[in-house]
Amino acid sequence: MDIPEGNGNPLGNGNGRARQTRPIGLGDAPNRHQQRRGIVPPPVQNHNFEIKLGMITLVQNKMFHGLSCEDPIDHLDEFDRLCDLTKMNGVSEDAIKLRLFPMSLGDKAHQWEKSLPHGSITTWEDCKKAFLAKFFSTGRTAKLRSEISGFTQRNNETFAEAWERFKGYTSQCPHHGFSNESLLSTLYRGVLPRYKEMLDTASNGNFLNQDVDDGWQLVENIANSSGSYGEEYDRTNELDLQLDRV
Q1: Which of 45, 106, 163, 192 has the CA that lies 20 to 30 A from 88?
Q2: Which residue range(s) make up the domain with 85?
Q3: Domain boundary among 136, 160, 182
Q4: Which helix (H) or strand (E) holds 216?
Q5: Where are the annotated segments for Disordered (predicted)?
Q6: Looking at 80, 109, 136, which one is the last position of a domain?
Q7: Cα dihedral sign for 191, 193, 198, 203?
């Protein structure tokens, strides 16, 4: 029996010619590859520019994985320090850092970088903003702001240790929003009574009447000079408490 040609005939096109077949599963596998590059560095005109293998190894040894226990600001600090080791005339910061930064990301952070819209990041500033927006959560910000505003010196902590811990909270959250006046006031109200008295004595009566810059320097000076004294004081107190229990 003859098979009529036409729209109902899968072997013909109505013109007497065989129609090109298309396998049903044709689209189930990729037939081309386009590199997923959300971060695109600018071109470099210097033909001698090369990132040494040693530098790549250093960067990959300081990888950020996107875990909640990791600090994204610390990662940027470390990455910046490493990149400062590579300088070449005619090669911009954007060109170096945008080439290296994807190599510093692993696991969740690497997946995030691959999911960025192609070519959406072309400057180092934009890269840092996008990275922090993704990995510095609002919850982390709220927790650190709470640590700052509710700061209290621990009983077994020297003044120097308390001051370092307090500054640590502020450096971990540079966008905390507190003024220096507010920070010094919070510190003063949170330290142990003997250190509050020390601050008042050094301020001729009341630490809160100090100029902000002078107050900041005073805290630094006391922290630098009282560390060993504070440790001896705490050890003596602990020994006295132990003897009292006997």
Answers
A1: 106
A2: 53-136
A3: 136
A4: helix 212-245
A5: 1-44
A6: 136
A7: positive
